[in-house]
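Exercise 7. Given the encoded structure of a 174-residue chain, write a plausible sequence.
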């Protein structure tokens, strides 16, 4: 691959990392695809298990990590709130390069699995620089509602040589 091709793949990897963070990345907390309903239109008043404030770390399979915090509201199947990701996380895209994920605060909305308010599991497709990227998001909150375990798998193009994984553990603070 020539320098122009390598530069283009590194740019692609950076775009992928930014798209992941800004749409959910982190996760699984509330980024189910196709979800458009907001909490203000949900009549259920009983909070679900994802409701509250959580903090912890998100780690990449290359050993990098960053602080993460979430403040969520969960009514019915609807989950909404904000996610704040700190500095330090990077995504290793193999031949496509390793790129730092910028710190970000992002509003998120989504929904839990039908009939299972403790799980969020979805697959999202993104087009980044003309290339389709598939992202699998999975999250499970503990039965006592105190711990969220989440994983994001990023399916990069074959020529990158690897598919990065991100994982996170968050603990209820409120």
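Solution.
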């Amino acid at each position: 691959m020539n320098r122009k091709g390598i530069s283009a793949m590194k740019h692609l990897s950076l775009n992928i990392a930014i798209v992941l963070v800004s749409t959910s990345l982190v996760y699984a907390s509330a980024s189910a695809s196709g979800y458009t309903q907001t909490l203000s239109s949900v009549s259920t008043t009983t909070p679900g298990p994802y409701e509250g404030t959580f903090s912890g770390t998100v780690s990449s399979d290359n050993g990098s990590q960053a602080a993460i915090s979430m403040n969520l509201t969960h009514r019915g199947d609807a989950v909404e709130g904000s996610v704040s990701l700190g500095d330090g996380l990077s995504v290793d895209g193999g031949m496509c390069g390793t790129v730092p994920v910028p710190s970000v605060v992002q509003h998120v909305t989504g929904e839990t699995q039908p009939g299972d308010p403790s799980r969020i599991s979805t697959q999202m497709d993104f087009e980044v620089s003309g290339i389709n990227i598939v992202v699998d998001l999975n999250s499970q909150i503990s039965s006592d509602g105190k711990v969220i375990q989440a994983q994001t798998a990023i399916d990069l193009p074959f020529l990158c040589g690897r598919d990065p994984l991100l994982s996170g553990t968050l603990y209820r603070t409120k």
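Remark. The helical segments are 3-23. Students should compare their own answers with the one above.
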